[in-house]
Amino acid sequence: MLAGQPALIVTAMKNEGPYILEWVAHHMALGFDNFIVMTNDCDDGTDRILDRLQQLIPLQHVPNPKSLFGDRSNWQVMAHRYASLFNLYKDAGWIYFTDVDEFLQIWVGDGTLDCFHQAAGGFDVVSFTSMPFGSNGVITLDDLPVVTQFTVQSKHYGADKAEGRRPNNAIKTMFHNRIHFSVRRNHRPRRSDFSQLGMRWIDGSGQAFSDAWVDGKAKDIAPEGSIDLAQFNHYAIRSAEAYLVKIDRGDVAGVPRLDAERSIGYWRIYDEKGDIDTRAALPRPGAVKLRDQFLTDPILGELHAAALAHHRKRAAALRAREDYASVLAAMGLAAGVT
Prior knowledge:
Elements: E1 7-13, H1 20-30, E2 34-39, H2 46-56, E3 59-63, H3 75-83, H4 87-90, E4 94-97, E5 102-106, H5 113-119, E6 125-132, H6 146-149, H7 157-162, E7 169-176, E8 183-184, E9 189-190, E10 201-203, H8 211-214, E11 220-221, E12 230-234, H9 240-249, H10 260-270, H11 285-296, H12 298-319, H13 325-330
Parallel strand pairs: 1-2, 1-4, 2-3, 6-10, 6-12
Antiparallel strand pairs: 4-7, 5-12, 6-7, 7-11, 8-9
């Protein structure tokens, strides 16, 4: 709950089986009440895991309708539009669009949405800053918490500040459901007259954005000064083997960012060796307890193990393929070696 009203996460997934339980448990521990998950042609058991979770927690899993309309919109846009038709969405007080490789982190109080709301002085909309993390040199696909394995950020924020640079990072936004926006999109909703509504749109430090920003279309902000109370950690590549499987499955947004050429650039950008941030490395006790409860469910435990085995088998097959030689070389892996 957030300020006494249910908080809903809306997301799209494709072949994310090994990571779902940790991610759901993490966000439930923060105070999110409900989930709507749209899936895209999964073959690793992601859909089965979500079907089972739907029987245990307030989560609604449905196939992404774009599967029926290949020439219309993209996967995430279609998912968000479709989600708005469900009563779970209509009844929510707060909506947050995020992805399964993104973990919201709240640094104040007991790390819950309510503590952030109180520390920030209240808000109607909040845009959290993305803090991307690299592979930490991890090669294998291990069944360990994502937040524990990857603690090296993809940028040198300290060096940037010392040298007078102020780079921007992407945002993700949580907003009150009563607000009428012209569009609600993955990074932020838009309304050209928002500044005239008498509402408060803040960053992760609790600072209000300028009128020009809230009325505009910007999808990024500077991390400096915007992450004092909260941020979201973005684990875009995870381990080297996990990234190979991500390339193989394609991009959930439905754009060709992970073809042979772009996948190398994507890896190099996200695997830059930047600052170390270990604040989230120890999963919150509430999240650990929830994940353990999920795994003790005989059906979920079996499905999770099967998804992990599927990803490991696929990673081994991809490491042995000659047509992945350029990607493997860029990642420091030898082609044809498993």
